[in-house]
């Protein structure tokens, strides 16, 4: 059994994965294929991730605020507390906060070939505003 106390390991997400800095709290970490990772993210207004995908998919569960998400080729959807969203394995997508409100969510994804995520290019203004 492992217990992580709330707010003890909050760090800034790595540079180059979003339009601005945001905080993450690792909840479950691994680099072993087939195991899950989980985190809580706290994203400020207007901050969105770059395009990315997850080799075994990703589940987001919205905790607070208002977010937006978009799968490549799809429509942008609004996300509210209590909503969950599943991105299929290798589905390119982005997510983040609306321009006027912060956004917090839980993220769960599994490891494949030593990675839980693959990062791509930034989302263009046109893609974000659609």
Automatic annotation (TrEMBL):
Ranges for domain Cupin type-2: 42-108
Pfam families assigned: Cupin_2
Stored InterPro entries: Cupin_2, HNL-like_cupin, RmlC-like_jellyroll, RmlC_Cupin_sf
Gene3D superfamilies reported for this sequence: Jelly Rolls
CDD domains named in the record: cupin_HNL-like
Protein name in UniProt: Cupin
Organism: Thalassospira xianhensis MCCC 1A02616
